[in-house]
Structure formats: structure tokens, C-alpha cells
Amino acid sequence: MELGFELRHVVVILISVLATLINVAIPVVYFLKKRRVKIVKREEYYRYIPLQGWESVVAALGIYAMGAPKESRATEHRQIDAVVQNQGIYGAAIYNVLAPHMTGRSGQFIERMLTEAKAILVSLDSWKRSYGYGGVGSFFKTSVVIEILDREEEMYALGIRASYVGDAGEIGLAEHLGIPRTLIRSSVIVEGNPGPGEFVFNFDNVLRRLRRVRGLNIDQQLTGEEIARTMWEDEYEDGRVELHRDDQFVVVVSPGRVGNHFVYDSGQGTNRWVIEDAILRGPLAESYNEPGTMDAPTLVITVKSSQGTDYKSKPIWRSEEKEQAIELASRIADAMR
């Protein structure tokens, strides 16, 4: 009887110790164990209208200036609304008569714009100009970008962004022309349940999942610890680590929605993240929408063109290449679920 009593106590003690060990170990696997991943979603970012031939660029800007896509006048209408609110109808009437963007001639304005752009694009692959109050008509408070996609095929990318409405005018113009915009990147956003007040990324688990993705050739020498350490040491950049590169695409992984990496006092930075082998942990990010609450941590895996630089990848304009990039991102998303 005494022996049975002692054994029962031994069992209870062992269970207690085991439970303690499990609780300690839980943060290590908080992220990217199947039951811990909340959401995996894919997002495509499109910008620029691909146009073949300089004449197409001229024609597209002329159509935009005429207000064919209704969004092209949105910034101008917002400005007039603001004048009405501040100065009344009479003030708006005077504004319509005297404001440069209301009285200028869009044809001459576009001609000057394109003359400048064409001269720059002889030696450079990109031209950009931001117009403030001097922008005429549809180009009021608007930035215009023209990039060369392919010199041999005379392919250009036209970008338009305006105050208040962003790229709504560009979207409207692309729809009016019936031309799909170029793909800048396809991203897989992996959202996980946080650990106790912190994010915890296990990059051994990440690599194990990604090495199974068809078409993704990750260097066998790359380790989870190397990824964690690169992110941990990266004080001034966004912690991107390259996983794959070929003639078409590059795939990078980076922290998404997490707490600030460094805090600064008198110019001295303190690293708030902690590295433990292949584990990277750190504070959560406070919610923009609900102050006082913390957002779930995210990890972002991005597919983009391998042409260009680390900071500006080349827009993907060919339909088949866009489909291939999105398909690769889809396979990555499936592996992370």
C-alpha cells in the first residue's frame, strides 16, 4: 500500500515536470505549426500601364487629360470641394477663373511633359515628375512616371498617382484602355497566433515547408539560424533574406507586422529582438485600428521579378510571366498552410 502511494506521487510529480517543460517549449513552436497558423493569404500589387510604342504613351496621356476615366478629375474635384467649404460658392467661382490648373491648356502641358521625358529616357530607364498646383487639369497635384520595360520591343510603363485618390486614375485609365496593369509583386502573408506577448518565428520550420515547393530552389546550405541572424542583425533595412533567384523571379522572406526592431535613445539603438538558434522573437506591434491592443504577427514571402535592384524590381508585364509568378506564390501559400 505504501509503495502504491509513493508511485502515485512519483507519477504526479513527473506529470507536473513534463507540463512545465511543455510550457517552456511552447514559444519555440508558436509560429508555423499547423495549429498555430491563423491565416495564410496572397496579395498581388499592380502598378503601371504597359504601352507599346511612344505614340501609345502620348495617346494614353491625352485620353487621361480629356477626363475619359472619371477618376482623372477626382483630385481636382476634391480641391474645389475644399474651396467651397472654406470660401463658399463665390470663392469657388473666383478659384475656377484664376487657378492655374483650371485655366491652363492640357495639350501644351502634355507636350512639355513628354518632351522632357523623352530626352531623359534616351539614357535612363525611368522618368518621373510630380506636379503640384501647377499641374493643369487632370494633372493637378499628380505624379507621372514613364519607365522603359523593353527597348527592343519599345515597351513603356505609364504610372499616374494623384493626391487624395492615389492610383485610382491609373486604374481607371487602364480599364478604359482595356490593358491589364503590370505586376510588381505577389506576396504570401502568413499570420500566426502570438506567443505570450511576443512574436516567435521558427525558421527551421519555415525552411522545411518551403523546400517542398515545386519551382523553388533554395540553397541547401541556407539554414534557419542564418535567416534568423540576418533579420536580427539588420538594423536599418527591412530584414529581407533571399531564398531563390533565377532568370525570371526572386523570392524573399521578411518580417511583416511585428513590433519595432530597435528603439533609440540619444542616438543609441537597442535591439529589442532576441535570437536563439533558428528562433527569432520580439515584441508585437500595436494595432493601428484598436489602440491598446496588439496585432497578430506576420511573416511575408514575396515573389517578384529578378530584374532590377533590391529596392526596385522591374514590373512584370508579359501575361505568361505574371501567371507564373502568381502560380509560384500560390504554391508557397499552400505549403505554409
Structure described in brief:
The chain has nine helices and 14 strands.
SSE diagram, text form:
Elements: H1 2-25, E1 37-47, E2 49-52, H2 54-65, H3 74-98, H4 100-103, H5 106-120, E3 126-131, E4 142-150, E5 155-162, H6 168-177, E6 182-192, E7 198-202, H7 203-210, H8 224-233, E8 241-245, E9 249-255, E10 262-265, E11 268-271, E12 274-276, E13 279-283, E14 298-305, H9 319-336
Helix pairs in contact: 2-5, 7-8
Described by strand count, sense and barrel closure, the largest sheet is: 5 strands, antiparallel
The mean pLDDT is 83
How many domains?
Answer: 2
Task: Assign an overall shape.
Answer: globular
Beta fraction:
25-35%
Low-confidence stretches: 1-5, 19-30, 89-104
Counting DSSP E segments of at least 2 residues, the number of strands comes to 14
Tally of individual helices: 9
End-to-end Cα distance, whole Å, is 52 Å
Radius of gyration: 27 Å
The string of secondary-structure elements, in order, is: HEEHHHHEEEHEEHHEEEEEEEH
Residues in helix, %: 25-40%
Q: Which secondary-structure class do the elements indicate?
A: alpha+beta
Cross-sheet strand order for the largest sheet: 1-6-14-9-8
What would you say this structure looks like, in words?
- Mean pLDDT is 83; it is low at 1-5, 19-30 and 89-104.
- The chain contains nine helices and 14 strands.
- Helix 7 (203-210) crosses helix 8.
- A five-stranded antiparallel sheet has the order 1-6-14-9-8. It has a four-stranded antiparallel sheet with strand order 2-5-4-3. The chain has a three-stranded antiparallel sheet with strand order 7-13-12.
- Strand 4 and strand 5 (155-162) form a beta hairpin.
- By secondary structure, it is α+β, with helices and mostly antiparallel strands.
- The protein folds into two domains: 31-47 and 185-336, no CATH class; 49-180, no CATH class.
